[in-house]
Automatic annotation (TrEMBL):
Belongs to the CpcS/CpeS biliprotein lyase family. InterPro entries: Calycin (IPR012674), CpcS/CpeS (IPR018536). Keywords: Lyase. The lineage of its organism: Bacteria, Bacillati, Cyanobacteriota, Cyanophyceae, Desertifilales. It comes from Roseofilum reptotaenium AO1-A. The keyword Lyase applies. Its EC number is 4.-.-.-. It holds the Pfam family CpeS. GO terms for biological process: protein-tetrapyrrole linkage. GO terms for molecular function: lyase activity. The gene is cpcS. This is Chromophore lyase CpcS/CpeS. The keyword Lyase applies. Gene3D superfamilies: 2.40.128.20. Covalently attaches a chromophore to Cys residue(s) of phycobiliproteins.
Length: 204
């Protein structure tokens, strides 16, 4: 599987249950987001616009994805929420389409256009590595089963000055008739979620 196939399998609506660990404060923050992923073809105007923004030949793009999200996190102030969208574009290496550049309209950790690297690992997980001016982020996405109904996501953000975070997410597909109960997680994954909510990814 290449990265564009991963985007295509991810297309649809997801509920993301997240535990973010603020390592400097030794505290965890829980949250929930609703995410919608739309796969984009190489000739989609939004894909070509991102290529132009990054001065990349649009003919090299394999396609992309529009990602929209809204939800809340535990430390939000009253009335505060998280709602936004971004376009991501896959530009594979010529000799290996399982890795290459990932162009974004805006980054995960900074609201600026950013170009990072992607690579599919041996377990068909999608790994994203992004360097910003003031921080770096490493993310991994994977499917938990062959039905494409559950995704797992881990991320670490390292900020200059030591304010680092690590996150673990379980994302459950909610756009099919079989998944009318968005909170119905398999017991093994539910136990993993509860464990990660209490203990950080680094063990404290």
């Amino acid at each position: 599987m290449d990265a564009m196939e991963f985007f295509q399998r991810s297309a649809g609506k997801w509920r993301s249950q997240r535990s973010t660990h603020h390592l400097a404060f030794r505290r965890a923050e829980l949250g929930e987001l609703e995410i919608t992923v739309s796969a984009l073809t190489p000739d989609d105007p939004r894909v070509q616009e991102i290529c132009t923004m990054h001065e990349v030949d649009g003919q090299l793009a394999a396609g992309g994805a529009l990602v929209q999200w809204h939800g809340t996190m535990g430390w939000d102030r009253e009335g505060e929420g998280h709602e936004d969208s971004t376009v991501m574009v896959i530009v594979p290496d010529v000799d290996n389409p399982r890795k290459g550049k990932l162009l974004r309209e805006k980054g995960y950790a900074e609201i600026v256009p950013v170009a990072g690297q992607y690579e599919m690992d041996d377990e068909d997980g999608l790994n994203l590595i992004t360097e910003y001016e003031t921080m770096s982020a490493i993310e991994r996405f994977s499917f938990a089963d062959d039905s494409d109904s559950i995704r797992l996501r881990t991320s670490t953000v390292k900020r200059f000055g030591g304010f680092n975070t690590a996150s673990f997410c379980i994302e459950t597909r909610i756009d099919s008739p079989a998944e009318t109960n968005a909170t119905a997680l398999p017991e093994a994954l539910k136990a993993s979620w509860e464990k990660e909510s209490a203990v950080s990814l680094l063990g404290w």
